[in-house]
Every structure is written in structure tokens, then in C-alpha cells.
Design goal:
Structural class: alpha/beta
Number of helices: 6
Number of domains: 1
CATH topology: YbaK protein
Radius of gyration: 14 Å
CATH superfamily: YbaK/aminoacyl-tRNA synthetase-associated domain
Number of strands: 8
Strand content: 25-35%
Shape: globular
Length: 151
């Protein structure tokens, strides 16, 4: 269900994509290795609370969030990692930890690392621990309209 919903979302917006099926993998680095994608080309989605508001933060799988830097870049008072129990219901049909960075589908703002712009394409989880979707980076920004920050 989640993969079909994501593909329908992309099709409706005329975004060309490649679907990459891989054996089950759960960490972003494991997914990148299993799918034979450099970690910097795999966009991982992290759910954080920014001043109490659930927000998707998207960054290269090979990176970690510097929460102080994110707080300053976002102009926030408080930032914290969201607990799984706080957001699991926001991603119907998605496996926990395999949420795609498509904020519009889930009614959430998206903050993206400026580093993602360094490559022509990015891949991201398609709602499962077995499939990725790869799109042109420009298409991603055109449909998601993330707020680009350095963190």
C-alpha cells in the first residue's frame, strides 16, 4: 500500500522515478549498501519536533543531524528527536523507520539538508524496508518544496 500510494503521488505530478527493490534492510547505511547506492545519495527521513511541531528532516544517509546547528538554521527555540510512538500513526501503511520524505502526503513540513543538492539524483524509502524510489533531485525539490538548511 505505501509504495503504491507513493508511486501514484509521483505519477500524478509527472515525476519520473526508478523503483529499487532490495533485501530487507533497516538502517540507512545498510539500505545504501544493500541497494548499491552511495550513502550520500540515499536520503534518510528523520522525524523531529521543532518547537513542538512534528517535522520531517531529510539528509544524506551518511550524515547525522547536528541538532544545535539545525536549531540555529531553523530559527527554533527547541528541537528534539520525536519518539516513534508520537509519529507512527502519521504514516499509515508505512513500516516504522521507512517513511518517505514526502511531507505533503502526511501533512508535515520538510526540512532538507543543502548537501542533498550536490547530486543529480536521490533515493529514499518507499514506505517499506524492501524498496526505494529514486528521482531527480530537482523533481524532489519541485514537488516537496523543502526548506533547505545547513545542519
Amino acid at each position: 500500500m505505501p509504495t503504491a500510494k507513493i508511486k501514484e503521488y509521483l505519477d500524478q505530478r509527472h515525476v519520473k522515478y526508478i523503483s529499487i527493490t532490495h533485501s530487507p534492510a533497516y538502517t540507512s547505511q545498510e539500505i545504501a549498501a544493500t541497494a548499491h547506492i552511495p550513502g550520500k545519495n540515499l536520503a534518510k527521513t528523520v522525524v523531529v519536533k521543532i518547537d513542538g511541531k512534528m517535522t520531517l528532516v531529510v539528509l544524506p544517509a551518511s550524515n547525522k543531524i547536528d541538532f544545535n546547528r539545525l536549531k540555529n538554521s531553523a530559527g527554533a527555540q527547541q528541537i528534539e528527536l520525536a519518539n516513534e510512538s508520537e509519529f507512527v500513526d502519521r504514516f499509515p501503511g508505512c513500516e516504522t523507520g521507512a517513511m518517505p520524505p514526502l511531507g505533503e502526503l502526511f501533512g508535515m513540513e520538510v526540512l532538507a539538508s543543502e548537501e542533498l543538492a550536490e547530486d543529480d539524483e536521490i533515493a529514499f524509502n518507499a514506505g517499506t524496508h524492501r524498496e526505494l524510489v529514486q528521482v531527480k533531485y530537482q523533481d524532489f525539490t519541485d514537488i516537496v518544496k523543502p526548506r533547505m538548511l545547513s545542519f
